[in-house]
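Can't paste images in this forum, so I'm doing it all in text. The chain is below; anyone willing to post the predicted structure tokens underneath?
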Amino acid sequence: MKREMVVNNQIKEFLLSANTRGYGSADVNEEKLPNGEHIIRFSDDTFEFKDIYYGGEPYAGQEVIFEHGGKAIWAMQYRGEVAGNEVSAIYAFLGRVLTNTKLGLPRGVDGYHDSEFSYKFRMDGGLESFTAEERILRGDETVYSAKFLGGLVDRGGE
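Text version of the structure:
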């Protein structure tokens, strides 16, 4: 019989902590390798988080949450790119968005904005299994977009 797939509050709280200490955070633990690979790590007493991405513009990557001991329990794949040439300003804004998220979201909060940019996030499904898209707009013009696919992994029963 298959076990019910549920992201419990402990995993949600850990993902929130990892996101607020991840890309865009002043205290991010990021390793940059010569081949263009970037590795962001975060852990607590129960879980480990690893975000590996490639490139800068455009970029692609994967986030994974592991139980201590190494078993992957949640993952999200992604790819994004800037439309235009204001890469630094747009990614600086995205960093602020991602460190100001809330419980139950894999990314930022829809509607976040500053005087120049606004952030739009749409997610179909829950953290157990989802697809999502984010966009950054200047006025009505989309200047950045990314797509996501994620959820629990290796949770099937026998």
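The helical segments are 9-20, 87-98. The mean pLDDT is 89.
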